[in-house]
Amino acid sequence: MAALMLICLLGGAHSSYGASLLKLSPDCESDSKTQRRHAAHFTFQPDPVPTQYGPTQKMNLFQSITSALDNTLANDPTAVIFGEDVAFGGVFRCTVGLRDKYGKDRVFNTPLCEQGIVGFGIGVACAGATAIAEIQFADYIYPAFDQIVNEAAKYRYRSGNLFDCGNLTIRAPWGCVGHGSLYHSQSPEAFFVHCPGVKVVIPRSPVQAKGLLLSCIADNNPCIFFEPKIMYRAAVEQVPLEPYIIPLSQAEILQEGSDVTLVAWGTQIHVMKEVADMAQEKLGVSCEVIDLQTILPWDVETVCKSVVKTGRLLISHEAPITGGFAGEISSTVQEECFLNLEAPISRVCGYDTPFPHIFEPFYIPDKWKCFDAIKRMINF
């Protein structure tokens, strides 16, 4: 492994040994024609075209976010969008064109200060307006941690419901992207699910992203909306043009099965779909795939009903395993479904290290790690 790392750093093209090792690592490919550095560890699987919300248009994930924000600004004259670089469209282009359409008083840049962004959003929401704050990367939400957990989440409780900041939605790009390394690949949802008073939501696709974001904006509680950045351009679906909502705190069963329950959210859902196909083809194992969608408050009933049926549970997320939300799901299922009896539950997650760069393919919980977990559970 050390030799592979050295060859990656030096280019590795000066020896036949190096050239042979390069073939083992997609991230070290030197030929630009065959470079796979930005290749995803999953294949995006679009949902069926929704017909219940009216006309649709082909959109990728960032365009569906833009559509949701456009709908909000058009229908809610109090709505404002603010954050670092949002005026020109943001680094991922999610707000492109909105300032020109709605004016600089409703879509505007802020200083590079996450604590100030969220603090300002709390004030805007408390004043009765709809505040949509963008944190440029989820990795940089930590300076705003105090504002979120000590102010936004507790505002309603501390006043006995006399006032609140429920009109606040915080958006942030989330998860690994193939080349983001330690400061642009984190999945910090577990930090916030320990905090009553906020809702945490992560979509899997463009259709889900628009419906869930509009639900967050309409919700009476402050919401954190994490957007899987690797799918901003890679995920494409037919998305309804008109506004629509997808209810929060309701998990969705994407595939029914009888042998193993697979639970994930965001990007990892597409890994689970591939794993389910592999398990059926190679092992004859029927998997039920559940997208949690809302991480807090999560849909305990749907997950537990599925696990009672299948008798096995696999949970997977990109965040480190220790303290990750998979542990909460696992313990709740043990209590609710098996009354503390031993049960075949497995977690396939990131390692307890900072998110690496050249070793990212070894870090992420890919389909092969999840497939191995299923094989172990089947023999339980």
UniProtKB/TrEMBL annotation:
Pfam families: Transket_pyr (PF02779), Transketolase_C (PF02780). Residues 59-234 form the Transketolase-like pyrimidine-binding domain. Keywords: Mitochondrion, Oxidoreductase, Signal, Transit peptide. Its EC number is 1.2.4.4. InterPro entries: THDP-binding, Transketo_C/PFOR_II, Transketolase-like_Pyr-bd, Transketolase_C. CDD domains: TPP_PYR_E1-PDHc-beta_like (cd07036). Residues 1-18 form the signal peptide. Its cofactor is thiamine diphosphate. It comes from Gouania willdenowi (Blunt-snouted clingfish). Together with BCKDHA forms the heterotetrameric E1 subunit of the mitochondrial branched-chain alpha-ketoacid dehydrogenase (BCKD) complex. The BCKD complex catalyzes the multi-step oxidative decarboxylation of alpha-ketoacids derived from the branched-chain amino-acids valine, leucine and isoleucine producing CO2 and acyl-CoA which is subsequently utilized to produce energy. The E1 subunit catalyzes the first step with the decarboxylation of the alpha-ketoacid forming an enzyme-product intermediate. GO terms for cellular component: mitochondrial matrix. Heterotetramer of 2 alpha/BCKDHA and 2 beta chains/BCKDHB that forms the branched-chain alpha-keto acid decarboxylase (E1) component of the BCKD complex. The branched-chain alpha-ketoacid dehydrogenase is a large complex composed of three major building blocks E1, E2 and E3. It is organized around E2, a 24-meric cubic core composed of DBT, to which are associated 6 to 12 copies of E1, and approximately 6 copies of the dehydrogenase E3, a DLD dimer. One of its GO terms (molecular function) is branched-chain 2-oxo acid dehydrogenase activity. It is found in: Mitochondrion matrix. The keyword Transmembrane does not apply. GO terms for biological process: branched-chain amino acid catabolic process; response to nutrient. It catalyses: N(6)-[(R)-lipoyl]-L-lysyl-[protein] + 3-methyl-2-oxobutanoate + H(+) = N(6)-[(R)-S(8)-2-methylpropanoyldihydrolipoyl]-L-lysyl-[protein] + CO2. This is 2-oxoisovalerate dehydrogenase subunit beta, mitochondrial. It comes from the Eukaryota.
